[in-house]
């Protein structure tokens, strides 16, 4: 098998890499581009720790082939803050103590940002169902849901 | 160092009890924090592990020659590469990391390959030929205890066990006091029930990962996600036959542990591959490897018998606990037996425990190991007795609650404990009297954990710019860097932002026990306070030197050295920053350190209230409302105390309703993935309300008790008790998954089931 040359955009930057035909986007991000913020918790699309956006759509990067990123725009946790300025969701997660070990946090933040872009005024139930694909084993979700709801309220006021 | 009750009651904390932003927060929300799998090294190889497809098989031979010759392969290891550690417990750890003469469970490691890429390593695994002789297997605890059951490891039975059970039974224990027969005779009603609980996994989202490097001069480095770098160093150095000082272990950020990362699984394998190949080797487990070969809890089979008078006084309690902890001897049942009746002040109580080996993975600690199951059995029977007499379940628990002076069933006499306070708070809480609709039910349960202290070292350096660096040795799994830094700031009288707390490698600080037993905020906090006091003593000496007065004439108050009284002399106070700035001129750098085997952890009690609704059509249980009441002694960072209470409750809800290890007749794990091993997701749960009580622990200077473990204990019975009231059926096996609830409803209403 020869490797595939992929030209793509990650967090706004044009990048290229060589990948195996069966390589996941998650592995390419982590191992070829050094973007280790996206985590592998299961490799089967069940835990959401590898959540990224592909042309704005929320996906599990462990279920996307790296070659599928050709010509598309990938958004990862590394692109969420602007320089030193955290995204409001990132700030609220720290303020609400919405993380403990933090390994699910990048995926949850990427997923929550995708939710608020689609639905700026979600109900608690909507937040819970949107994030049902992102497992957190530390928090019981309570503070995560509160952080997302509070961010949404702030952003609506802004 | 004992709590000064008057001081603690009067003390006005400035930092402790506030909610500063956690110091590791920004790294974790930006993806910068480095976890086990995020580390790389130049020239690094990737390793994969070959695992047994059989539940129980003799390994006649392993032929690795084709794999060794495969392209890109740099090293292959099997058990033959390892020696035999002298210590039996260490040998068990090694045999669990790499099967020796037998594969003991589905997923047991038998060989490993390090290669230049994951693809090359995976391809080479297929070239390894293992000649297995498949043996009869057993995975159920009751079946494993029966005489004639397949023997997992011969010669491991304890002498105290007796001959009426199989050779798989490795432990027997017994606790209690009083006359059981007389106690049961005094009861107006006695209920005896049998319970079963399935094994659950800690379910940390980060799979085990490590990176090993081994130099030809015998020095080695290991980076890994672990709950204890010193434990990893001690186990791996013994397994590798090297001196502890030659192996440096550096903990990464840890993506959850809950007890499951208090041992090693892949680290010795990575070290041996690195030694053989001469290159750094990284191993990252897949989720299915995590579920098949690490963790889980014991499963259990229990009998519980309790007698009660009609006015709600418990007259006697007796529990027989049978746990299996996988293919190796395991003493967890002892914790279950000690904890079972801990919430009650009883004249007659007895608990007995047996552990059996089975063809399952070696159990690892999971939050309050052993306690959730036994307390589930006891709290279910207490609840059924309340139902029988029509008594309020909180009143009955208050009537029988253990308190200061109670002799616990496991022998100790309790000092100040918070159980009655938690029960009273629950009784007064609006949740307890909120109306319920038909099909809904409310459940209550107590929970308990011993808590632990243990070996701990802390070094605290006062920097010349007036900042403080705290060096500690316990991986931060729930926000402990925040709470440790807060206690340092409190004791020194500086603001929290002046303190930075680092978790360091094994070469940088003395031995620390693993992050377990809810010990870190208690024990590392205690050592930090003592280290800060030592630094304050040095700073008072420096001020005395500057002022030209006696050391004894200087005191530390409010973040500054001051003359102790008018007779000491008139000098303006010198702050930490002022003393630190001139430290070089007054004797050199200023530091404090403390090393201790911390005692006095202080037991922990909690009470949970839950409302559920059971769907009679599907058997699904919805958790509607949940409130946790727990004694924290003193909540250093209340947000992270709440987080422990909420997270433990969520894990207990999963244990009660969904999570289970499912084995087929072939002895293979049927659900090694998050799709089928279903942990609670956001849409399964309501908000989890918390009420923190603060009954100071006499064993800690600020009154702190560990809070990490108790919260997983009550949900099992609380939900079973709520289901029994919501659906009118009492389930005696966990999890209460929809098929089990439907079966119980059908059995209770055969006419409806036939329709």
Describe the fold and architecture.
The complex is a heterodimer of chains A (158) and B (755). With 158 residues, chain A is of the alpha+beta class. Chain A has 2 domains: 4-79, Ubiquitin-like (UB roll) (Roll); 88-157, DNA polymerase, domain 1. Chain A is 34% helix and 16% strand. Chain A has a 5-stranded mixed β-sheet, sandwiched between helices. In chain A, helix 2 crosses helix 5 (142-157). Chain A is globular, with a radius of gyration of 16 Å. The model of chain A has no long low-confidence stretch (mean pLDDT 97). By secondary structure, chain B is of the alpha+beta class. Chain B has a domain at 5-33 and 453-598: Aldehyde oxidase/xanthine dehydrogenase, molybdopterin binding domain (Aldehyde Oxidoreductase, domain 4), CATH 3.30.365.10. Chain B contains 23 helices and 27 strands. In chain B, strand 24 (604-614) and strand 25 (621-631) form a beta hairpin. The longest helix of chain B has 28 residues, at 520-547. Chain B starts with a helix and ends with a helix. At the A-B interface, helix 2, helix 3, helix 4 and helix 5 of A face helix 2 and helix 20 of B.
Shape call of chain A: globular
For the biggest sheet of chain B, the summary is: 7 strands, mixed
Structural class of chain A: alpha+beta
Helix content of chain B: 25-40%
Question: What strand line-up does the widest sheet of chain B have?
Answer: 3-5-1-12-9-10-11
CATH topology of the largest domain in chain A: Ubiquitin-like (UB roll)
Name the CATH superfamily assignment of the largest domain in chain A.
Beta-grasp domain
Number of helices of chain A: 5
Strand order of the largest sheet of chain A: 2-1-5-3-4
Radius of gyration of chain A, Cα only, in angstroms?
A: 16 Å
Strand content of chain A: 15-25%
* Overall pLDDT level of chain A: 97
Q: For the record, what is the CATH homologous superfamily label of the domain at 5-33 and 453-598 in chain B? A: Aldehyde oxidase/xanthine dehydrogenase, molybdopterin binding domain
Could you give a short account of the major beta sheet of chain A? 5 strands, mixed
What's the overall geometry of chain B? Answer: globular
